[in-house]
Amino acid sequence: KNKAVATPTRTKEILETYGFAFKKSLGQNFLIDVNILKNIIEHAGIDREAGAIEIGPGIGALTEQLAIHADRVVAFEIDQRLLPILEDTLADYDNVAVINKDILQADVNEVIAAQFKEGQPIKVVANLPYYITTPILMKLLMGRLPVESITVMIQKEVAERMAASPNTKSYGSLSIAVQYYTEAEVSMNVPKTVFMPQPNVDSSVLHLKMREEPPVQVENEEFFFDLVQATFGQRRKTLMNNLARHFKESMDKQEIRKRLEAAEIDPGRRGESLSMEEFAVLAHYFYEK
Ligand code: SAM
User: Fold this and answer.
1) Best exposed site among 17, 66, 183, 205 by fewest CB in 10 Å?
2) Is 31 annotated as ligand-binding?
3) Around Cβ 248, how many Cβ atoms within 10 Å?
4) How far is it, in rounded angstroms, from Cα 225 to Cα 238?
5) Alpha helices of the chain — where are they, by DSSP H?
6) Which sites bind S-adenosyl-L-methionine (predicted)?
7) What is the predicted ipTM?
8) Closest approach atom of ligand 1 to CA 79
9) Distances in Å between the alpha carbon of 170 and those of 132, 167, 237?
10) Global pTM?
């Protein structure tokens, strides 16, 4: 039996056999460390019952470990050149389907309905292509897919922003967007040396546990997220300044001051000090049907 795909020697061998050249533009950095993969699978809570969705299987390093530990694996890969390689590296597993599609174009709900058992616990697990980390995660979150969790290797700095708490350097509108849908946690930091080729940035594994309900109630989600973004607009500026800019067409400063008073939020504060609950209160007092 072959050694695992995720070793330096086997990976080099596969790349040579197929004359595969990495495409930087597709964020191709393959994992070459089985221990890291086992840790990811553990953090993801993958077990025999689980259905796994992978984004970007590459030559199958993570796919293989998912095939071993999960009930079924469905992987979306955009690069057609990888299909014959995956057929080869995953030949021993009959519980894997590879779909040759751009994840941003794919109808993931339809794939879930077609590929997994009714009621099967589904988890997304991936070493994401870093150039589209945020669009991919926002698509999965806003699509309200029937998945339990998302566990992904991403750029360390982005993972920190997504999981950040108020009054930290990393806290911003991305923290609110992600934490509105999930409970976010950085599971571990990962050195560059476990990738081939090595990326220029540091990486972390981010675990997102889907919430059944949003943590706050808002009248209008789009208005809420726009308002959050506006209050972080210029980080050094006060709430008052950022709101005045955001509502310059519809409200004067006096009106803004009045509403902040009603919301019991000090106009001199900065966006970075507001909790999700306070943003929801703010949105409530500024929203007009
Ligand atoms: N899972 C493999 C591993 O860990 O070794 C490869 C991870 S590599 C960081 C990212 C993978 O995502 C590549 O195989 C790349 O071709 C694929 N990819 C890039 N953009 C994609 C997209 N829009 N949809 C699906 N896959 C994509």
Assistant:
1) 17
2) yes
3) 11
4) 18
5) 8-18, 34-43, 61-69, 83-89, 108-115, 133-142, 156-163, 173-181, 221-231, 239-246, 253-263, 276-286
6) 29, 31, 56, 77, 102, 127
7) 0.99
8) 16
9) 19, 9, 16
10) 0.96
